[in-house]
From TrEMBL:
<protein>
    <recommendedName>
        <fullName>FLYWCH-type domain-containing protein</fullName>
    </recommendedName>
</protein>
């Protein structure tokens, strides 16, 4: 015959083993070594962000002798500085990455579809033939190809970024003349 106290002990023991399993998974994820990387478009027009298979992001630091050296995105953040550096080959077919150590932070979640949507809109908006095209029209055309990205990137956000990029482009054209 079960009484209430016995049921509570059984439930508590099941929950504690689940907590231990979750802690072990977090610890094992923390010490994994990145093996491969992918290239994401950056916020600026021709910039690139490198993301390893553990979802940590890196920026290009320098390149020498067919090797590109990368720094962790948190090296720019003084409050959460991360000393990890990485190196990759210049050869695009070789997507192996080597790091200098373990990150002292968890990776930020990146919405890749939103990044692609933002890049598509900005590229279309800064083409010489479409500088007078309304931003709303460009936004709706880009949503057709990247519908998932529209969840986290609104029309007002795209209007702000496109106006900024078009202003920069007009200043450059005026200085050339």
């Amino acid at each position: 015959v079960f009484n209430l106290k016995t049921k509570k002990e059984i439930l508590h023991s099941k929950n504690s083993t689940d907590d231990i399993d979750e802690e072990e998974n977090v610890v094992s994820d923390k010490y994994k070594v990145p093996v491969s990387y992918s290239i994401l478009p950056g916020v600026r027009l021709n910039s690139q962000v490198y993301m390893d298979n553990l979802h940590h992001r890196y920026y290009k630091h320098s390149s020498r002798n067919n090797v590109i050296y990368l720094v962790c995105e948190n090296q720019k953040n003084k409050t959460e500085f991360c000393p990890v550096m990485a190196s990759i080959s210049v050869d695009m077919n070789n997507n192996r990455i080597k790091t200098t150590g373990q990150h002292n932070h968890l990776p930020r979640q990146v919405d890749i579809s939103m990044v692609n949507l933002r890049r598509t809109i900005c590229l279309q908006a800064t083409r010489s033939g479409s500088l007078s095209t309304p931003i709303k029209q460009l936004y709706y055309q880009a949503i057709i190809t990247n519908p998932e990205g529209a969840k986290n990137y609104s029309l007002s956000q795209s209007q702000l970024s496109v106006r900024r990029m078009r202003r920069r482009r007009r200043r450059q054209a005026a200085s050339i003349i």
